Nucleotide-binding universal stress UspA family protein (Salinicoccus kekensis), 140 residues
Amino acid sequence: MYKNILLPYDFSNSFDNVPEQLEKLVRNDPEHMITVFNVISEGEHADSVQYRRKHLDYIINERAERLEPFLTRLDELGLNYQVEFESGMIRQTILRKINNNNYDVVVMSNRRAKREIKHVLGQVTHKIAKRSNKPVMIVK
């Protein structure tokens, strides 16, 4: 169904339900590609260098390790993926990634500031869904 999918991955969200939704979206198309994309905020990058003397490559390696359980699940489902990291302002970097590439759909997990509010999107999810020129699927 969809061949080229962008998955902006946020370590503070739950992505437990996402692999199964991705599997449904690709419908056994062997040519599909899922881009797992994580943005390292400029503030986090600057703090890591200044206070912990960790440079971007080190941060990327740490995040890649934390991403392994999710990627293992994608492997178990036979999904094709690539992992990309960038540093920048989160919303703008994701929107630039969407606009500069030929994605069929963007899949996002939702994070809400207050869990007791059921139907409110997180700030980044809301802005991406509102400003994206591609369809956005939000997985709860």
Summary: The domain at 4-139 is CATH 3.40.50.620 (Rossmann fold). The CA atoms of residues 9 and 38 lie 5 Å apart. The chain has one domain: 4-139.
